[in-house]
């Protein structure tokens, strides 16, 4: 039962170690596991653009006897956990158990994301951020707060930065975009139609679009560059938890990259911002001694 419950996590963890054909199968499953449970073997092979024997080899590589058992274990993976809370938590968990599980799940997901992120792609993303005339961070739902956090970080770099979670405002900004503008679109699934449309509109008007989204998703396909974010949880069923933490951490990585790229000459500017807050705080115990 443990293997069935953790199948999606096992696929995610082993993604980089799979051969090219099997990785295509894994990516289709991870992008929409609930849909994969409804596929016949022929439909899954078609969606992944592989042969049916490749699907069977994929099953065997995970110790699964065949495609019917794969679908069963996927269904069990989706059914495990407390519905609409977290796939890591079960309905009868004690406070000690669900606290431990949430922390453990988050740490494991962060490590998996770290293993999958490509440093070369990170470097290209930093290039886009450093070269931008102005940056707009877009997110909807749970990703809206991530966009706000990004604005809070990146305004420190003496750039024109904004964050927006209203679809109409996002569309209006994309419609008047210019070369030199950068739109950073944050979407866990990459399947939100409005955000895909907005990305296409911004690029049509000459702007660059950086996606923080799922590999191979509709949004990733229309971005100038996509930082492929792993899919450790099914947000169609569970509330976003580890996915949000991964997004925030990736933005921390990008902020660090921009800081380092600016070099030592930029440090006085950052120090000035920090020192502007000193008068707003009570002294700590050591300062008052």
Q: Describe it for me?
A:
By secondary structure, the protein is α/β, with parallel strands linked by helices. The longest helix has 22 residues. Helix 3 packs across helix 5, helix 10 packs parallel to helix 14 and helix 11 runs parallel beside helix 12. The protein folds into two domains: 79 residues, Arc Repressor Mutant, subunit A; 151 residues, Glucose-6-phosphate isomerase like protein, domain 1 (Rossmann fold, 3-Layer(aba) Sandwich). A five-stranded parallel beta sheet has the order 2-1-3-4-5, with helices on both faces. It contains 16 helices and five strands. This is RpiR family transcriptional regulator. Keywords: DNA-binding, Transcription, Transcription regulation. GO terms for molecular function: carbohydrate derivative binding; DNA binding; DNA-binding transcription factor activity. One of its GO terms (biological process) is carbohydrate derivative metabolic process.
């Amino acid at each position: 039962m443990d293997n069935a419950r953790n199948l999606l996590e096992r696929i995610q963890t082993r993604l980089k170690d799979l051969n090219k054909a099997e990785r295509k199968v894994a990516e289709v499953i991870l992008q929409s596991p609930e849909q994969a449970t409804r596929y016949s073997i022929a439909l899954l092979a078609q969606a992944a653009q592989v042969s049916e024997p490749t699907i069977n080899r994929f099953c065997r590589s995970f110790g699964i006897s065949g495609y019917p058992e794969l679908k069963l274990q996927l269904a069990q993976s989706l059914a495990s956990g407390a519905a609409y809370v977290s796939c890591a938590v079960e309905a009868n968990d004690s406070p000690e158990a669900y606290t431990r599980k949430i922390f453990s799940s988050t740490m494991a997901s962060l490590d998996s994301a770290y293993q999958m992120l490509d440093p070369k792609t990170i470097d290209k993303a930093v290039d886009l951020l450093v070269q931008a005339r102005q940056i707009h961070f877009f997110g909807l739902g749970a990703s809206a707060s991530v966009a706000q956090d990004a604005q809070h970080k990146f305004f420190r770099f003496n750039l024109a930065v904004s964050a927006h979670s209203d679809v109409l405002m996002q569309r209006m900004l994309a419609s008047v975009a210019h070369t030199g503008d950068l739109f950073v679109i944050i979407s866990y699934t990459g399947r939100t139609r409005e955000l895909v449309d907005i990305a296409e509109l911004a690029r049509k008007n000459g702007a660059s679009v950086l996606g923080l989204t799922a590999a191979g998703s509709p949004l990733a396909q229309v971005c100038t560059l996509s930082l492929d974010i792993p899919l450790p949880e099914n947000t169609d069923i569970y509330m976003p938890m580890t996915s949000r933490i991964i997004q925030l951490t990736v933005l921390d990585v990008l902020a660090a990259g921009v800081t380092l790229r600016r070099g030592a000459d930029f440090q006085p500017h950052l120090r000035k911002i920090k020192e502007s807050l000193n008068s707003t705080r009570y002294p700590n115990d050591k300062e008052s001694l």
